Amino acid sequence: MSEALSPADRSSLSAEQGPVSMAVGAALVFDGGPGVSVDAVEERLGARLHLIPRYRQRVEHLTPGGMTNPVWVDDTGFDVGWHLRHASVDGSPGLAELVGHELSRRLDRRRPLWEMTVATGLEHGRVALVPKMHHALVDGVAAVDVGTVILDPSPEPMDVTPEGPWEPKPYDRRRHLARLAATPMVRGQRLLLDSARRALDTSPRRAADDLLRATELLTELARSRPQAPMTALNEPLGPNRRFAMADARLDALKRAGKAHGGTVNDAILAAVTGMLAAVLPQPERRPVALVPVSVRQEGEQGGNRISTVFVDLPVELEDFAGRVEAIAVQTSELKGSAAVRAGALLQGAAGWAPPLVSSGLARAMSGVRAFNLVVSNVPGPQVPFFLNGSQLRAVHPAVPLNPANQRLSIGVLSYDGGVFFGLLADRDLDPPVTTLASARWPSARGPRSPSTGATRASSATW
Fold first, then answer.
1. Is 40 helix (H, G, I), strand (E, B) or coil?
2. DSSP code per residue over 267-329
3. Is the pTM above the cut of 0.70?
4. Which of 204, 206, 328, 340 is the least buried, fewest Cβ under 10 Å from its Cβ?
5. CB within 8 A of 166, min separation 6: which ones?
6. What's the rounded Cα separation, in Å, for the pair 392 and 31?
7. Quick check: 324 and 257 in contact, CB under 8 A?
8. Which residues contact 205 (CB under 8 A, 6 or more apart)?
9. Which positions ≥6 away from 438 have C-beta within 8 Å?
10. What are the b/e assignments for 221-230, b being 16+ CB within 10 Å?
């Protein structure tokens, strides 16, 4: 039994070259209690993994050299204990350091592409879970779904025990190759037929031609807008990462956005703009944020369905209101444009290309400075969740750094009335990521958050 990787999933695997690691992570902070011990977490994972089958699957390559697309297959040697570990940290700064260290290590592709660490030693006796998943395994929106699978909407755990023990399904490489070769014959459209044949073609000349054409195409798409300015965020990456956390109230951001003609997302981007303006030298032009947009259809489970838009951040404006207004003008225009559709079409077009072409697409984007940083905003549940009776207090996402000259990414997730920021940066970023996090709202520093010790923004800033 097997399932082909989606175009976006293959692209994220291909992008993992040199110092680039494509692992998505987070810091989930819980109230302390017996339900968040290592043994209790392992038991919960074992009882719920049947709801997310991908967590028991690994990537299988059909042929050497990357000339055919890889597939997901059941890991016959799966053991949840190999994916779970424990770490003792020194408060919230220690938790942030742990996340940075975890995201500096690549996941082992011989196993299912995820790990989880139980971190103890936080303030108020709290405990954190630090999940790490390859971007090919799950996108941002689906990551929320995975989280809610192992959590409960009430302190009393739900009974979702599987009917019987999990048994891996055998994988027959020859049968899959035969089925893959035969599949295009039932397709009526000439374009799909030709593309599928090229995907199975092992000719080095054909693969090189496809790689060149796809690389040239993506480079031209990236150059369709002015190059992003050079900033301290765009030096070459090293292999190591640092992480910082901050949070704000969702209702305050909503009020701030609405008061100035924008949305909560516009207010979040305005806050990021203020952070950059406070600590970076004023660039000649506005820095550009790459903002991923989920285009997954209702009812789809897992996988990546992502498009992107570019937003110019008005760092030259000194007040928050002006920043919201300037960003709202851009985002409203983008909603009525073909930008989102074009991004989704690009992902679909790569689906019929060999993996070597997908790798070329990732390299092409890294050679064009089309943006300065990534800001990934994911809407989360607005009700409290629990793990074996312990309430989840905060969720700080970590978004991978990609391409190799992007030193900062900002993950944003709203949950239970809060907006939680996770800043992942190259270890040698100057200024350090901790300085960036504390400078998000420079005119009024809020009190320390009781949830994680991260800086909390005050609505008085606006």
1. helix
2. HHHHHHHHHHHHHSPPPSS--EEEEEEE-PPTT--SB--EEEEEEE--TT--SHHHHHHHHHH
3. yes
4. 204
5. 49, 50, 56, 78
6. 7
7. yes
8. none
9. 246, 445, 455
10. bbeeeeebbe
